[in-house]
Write a structure and sequence with these properties.
globular, 7 helices
Length: 211
């Protein structure tokens, strides 16, 4: 059975891949990035076991705004860093077209228009505390492009690291403070960037809609 990732690769990109098995290898290695990040992230604090449900829910610190940060949230951030370092290496080797990692976009739903936010602008706004200017922006983990149009994605990938690990990974549904209230990340990513939005998680692998 073909991976959802392999099914979503445009024919033009498939034709550029050097070997027939490269698409399958790409899917396998991206899942391995998730599993490696899960293992290494847990090992820093829990040696050879995943955290328990109780440990995942523990508040370990407060953010700059005074909001509680749970262990699950902190582990998730750390595992994302590990996974995306791995992904960068894999894509440089196997994806024959451009790709973007943690690129932030401004999306104007009524105009169906997208613009990229530069890393420099993003850092400046955060440093100045102007996060309201980033409200409604999108920041998928990985966008695989089919050509040099970096405002269009063929495949959008988001890594999810449920804590505890037996929880089912889910697309985030935007809440009442968002301009996308009631919509899922998957829907908004696909509407804004085109292509197919897929989840990658250590236990389930690559999927469109986890069950």
């Amino acid at each position: 059975m073909l991976s959802p990732l392999v099914r979503a690769i445009p024919p033009a990109v498939l034709a550029l891949m050097q070997q027939d098995h490269d698409a399958d290898e790409l899917a396998d290695r991206l899942v391995q990035c998730a599993r490696q990040a899960e293992r290494l992230g847990n090992a820093r604090f829990f040696l050879d076991r995943p955290p328990t449900r109780q440990e995942c829910g523990e508040v370990v610190e407060k953010d700059a705004c005074g909001k509680p940060v749970t262990r699950a949230m902190r582990l998730g951030k750390q595992k994302h860093v590990l996974a995306l370092q791995c992904v960068d290496q894999v894509l440089k080797e196997l994806w024959p077209a451009p790709f973007s990692i943690e690129q932030r976009y401004r999306y104007y739903p009524h105009a169906r228009m997208v613009e990229a936010v530069s890393k420099k602008e993003e850092a400046r706004l955060i440093a100045e505390g102007c996060t309201e200017e980033l409200r409604g922006t999108l920041k998928p983990d990985v966008v695989l492009h089919a050509d040099r149009n970096l405002l269009k994605g063929s495949i959008i990938l988001d890594f999810k690291f449920p804590c505890p690990v037996e929880n089912t990974p889910r697309w985030t549904v935007y809440g009442g403070n968002s301009i996308y209230v009631g919509s899922s990340q998957q829907h908004v990513y696909q509407e804004a960037l085109g292509g197919e939005a897929l989840l990658i998680s250590p236990r389930i692998g690559i999927t469109e809609n986890p069950k």
